[in-house]
Amino acid sequence: MSNLSELLPTGGGQNVVALTADGAITAGQAVALQSDGTIAPVAETNVAQAIGTPVAFSSGSVEDFSIVFDEISGKTVIFYKDRANSSKGTAVVATITGTSISYGTPVVFNDAVCSAIAAVYVPTLGGIVVLSSSVQGRTHTIRVSGTSISSTRVADFATSGSASSITYNSRDNVVMISYVDPANSNYGTARTGKVTAGVITWTTPRVFNSAATLRPQCAYSYAQNIFVTVYRDGTLYNSRVARMLRPLDQDLNSTFGNEVSLNISSPGATSITAVPNQRWVVAISNASFRRGTVQLTTNAAVKWKPATEYDFPGGGFAGADRITVLYAENSSQYVITGNDGTVCTLILGTPLGANTLLSTPISLATSIDVGAVAAYDSAQKKIIVAYEEETPSEIGKAVVFQNAYSYSNNADFIGFAAGDIADGASGNVNVYGGINESQTGLTVGSIYYVAPDGSLVEKSSLLDIAYATYTGSAFDISGQDFTPAKVAFNTDGTKMFVLGVSTDTVYQYSLTTGFDLGTASYDSVSFSVATEDSDAYGLAFNADGTKMFMSGGTNDSVFQYSLSTGFDLSTASYDSVSFVVSGQLSNPRGLTFNTDGTKMYLCGPSTDSVFQYSLTTGFDLSTASYDSVSFDASEALLNPLDVKFNSDGTSMFLADDDAGGLVQLTLSTAFDVSTASYKSGLNINILDSYDGLQSNPYGLAFNNDYTKLFVVGNNKDNVAEFNLTTPTTSVKAGKAISTTAINLVDVQ
Question: N or C: which terminus of the chain has fewer CB atoms within 10 Å of its end residue's CB?
Fold first, then answer.
């Protein structure tokens, strides 16, 4: 916690402070300072997934939903056309308690027949802006008071209205809309509206599709200041979803980029969202999910860099007329809702860098009509889904979905308990500037961090490639090979080795400063492995560099070599020892070992899996056998080309050429791939605006302390260097001065 001196009791000193415990605390336990001045153990809280019971919000038939969380009131508002009341635009306030839901009295906000309702929360308004289509394209501002609303009609957005969508640009305090304009041949049209003192002033309409347009949906990317609209071109009704990007000029006018095809399959219904403060934009259709990034090029054009399309598990949202995708910040997941037949269905999408892991469909309700809409309650960290029940009378219902997530108080860490402290009692805490002597099993001289669960861990255990940043340094090896596939280093990083597919040769380089590509140069030393395999792809060394291994796709085998001088390719020779892996996979691309060489791992695109082998003698292929253990990565990876581990085998890393990213997994049992689960990822593709950076990774490597990452690929024919920083989810604690004592003086 910041400003600790202001929060600690007067006279507490710099080393030991007496504080009151909220909950029992044991000696040596990491503690966090709470807002009331008490302390509690640092701990991670896990919230389990839960589904509430659907509750009706109307007594009659409804349709054309929109749902918005109103931040200032902490309430969710459901907008709909009330067919039981002359199809007037109606709103009802929902109150969420746990997974239960209750409603205020429905209020008419548009007293005319209306449809195509779309709404967004506007912080500067302290309320909601809602669009609806009556004779005109109407705009209303909505303010929530208790369990009711008040409505004010403001300037119409169109002389006639049809399907519409709305988003909010917080940079410039404008609402941004895309809609179908019946007064102009149903062209796709966009406008921005400046919000001032409850009044919206619309700019000139801008056509983004000069043809009949269907189902426009829009989002605003804050990170890039770009407005995105997804739509179906009516002249190509069943063939594609397309989208338009546009940067904004200082006058908030629209400068449209070129139309770009999303290449999304089965574009019946569509939806779109942008991730807050990131460049990710997600577009979905009934059957598929596509996540990509948006970039402005040097000439102010807009570039869409799509990740590979994923098919929804279970067939997706068959026949859905309305689907919604939103971003849940509590779990950093995408939430996709719609209907699969008559079942209200939800799918979670977990981003893993450039890759995405889609959950199996979750059933929220049955007997629903077409479509469902959803909103994220950021106060209670829940998702509210509204839909029309199919039977008996097409009434409107909503249900609360609690997504699983975890959180920790370790950001408020202040020190370690000097001794046991009973609940409600006062006890001493060693704070910054002090030494705690109640630890166990520390490594002298190591820096320790407080993990989210309160445990002390070394930096190597905190490795997370999501926090990798490109250094701007890349080393060109195109003078040796045009398809570099793998990279490896000696122990101190003063030698680098690159395997080239074009020449089936390993090349050797020197670095005057270890693991610094800016100091690299070619040694004019190489070793051809073409005799053993003409499709060489995998490369690994033992710890002292006296053994080298290559995997090849022509013979589906791993080959073993000896180097009489460690890490000197000029002394390499083939051992006439190989191991066939065709029983598990063809075209083995990635190859690595555990630290003592008693385990070997291979991956490749033929099965999208990682396979595990045992060697009774470390780094001796003649003793290798298959463990009948593998990990199927096809849920999230599309073309795994390399596999690596951290030093203790609790983390595994895969390079995915198709998606343009790296994926990190956690192993609950070290070096046992059957215990792997997904953790995070790094999108290489998003960063290729940097000169020299690979966007199609073929191989990866780390330095000794895992503070650097190296990626090799063939689109730039080089090796790129990244820094790995400590994740923000962990807090530095101090340095171990003995196996039982930690010095907190080193942390600030």
Answer: C
Please check whether residues 386 and 435 belong to one and the same domain.
no
CATH number at residue 621: 2.130.10.10
Place of tokens 């994926």: 663
Residues 491 and 435 in one domain: no
For residues 26 and 68, membership in a common domain is answered with no
In a domain, 10, yes or no: no
Instruction: Identify whether 634 is part of a domain.
Output: yes
Helices marked H in 279-337 = none
Domain count along the chain: 3
Regarding whether 490 and 434 lie in a shared domain, the answer is: no
Contact 681, 354 (CB under 8 A): yes
Phi, psi for residue 528 in degrees, rounded to 5: -85, 135
> In this model, does residue 396 exceed pLDDT 80?
yes
Report how far residue 362's alpha carbon sits from residue 127's, in angstroms, rounded to the nearest whole number.
Answer: 32
Residue type, 241: V
Asked if the model's pLDDT at residue 295 lies above 80, the reply is: no
Is residue 7 included in any domain, yes or no?
Answer: no
Contacts by 290-294, CB closer than 8 A, 24 or more apart: 290/262, 290/263, 290/264, 291/334, 291/349, 291/351, 291/356, 293/683, 293/685, 293/686, 294/221, 294/224, 294/226, 294/228, 294/245
Q: Name the residue type at position 217.
A: Q
The model scores a pTM over 0.85: yes
Residue type, 715: N
The boundaries of the domain holding residue 126 are 47-407
The contacts of residue 229 (CB under 8 Å, 6+ apart) are: 165, 178, 188, 190, 208, 216, 217, 218, 243, 244, 272
Burial 107-126 (b: 16+ CB within 10 A, else e): bbbbeeebbbbbbbbbeebe
Cis peptide before 276 (omega within 30 of 0): no
Residue 356 covered by a domain: yes
Paired tokens of 104 = 């205020």
Which residues, including other chains, have CB under 8 Å from residue 283's CB and lie 6 or more apart?
A: 230, 241, 243, 262, 264, 270, 271, 272, 290, 291, 292, 325
Last residue of a domain, one of 383, 407, 431: 407
Strands (E), 646-675: 651-656, 661-667
Residues 151, 144: Cα–Cα separation, whole Å: 9
Q: Are residues 149 and 266 in the same domain?
A: yes
Per-residue pLDDT reduced to its tens digit, 518-566: 999 999 999 999 999 999 999 999 999 999 999 999 999 999 999 999 9
| 276 lies in the same domain as 332 | yes
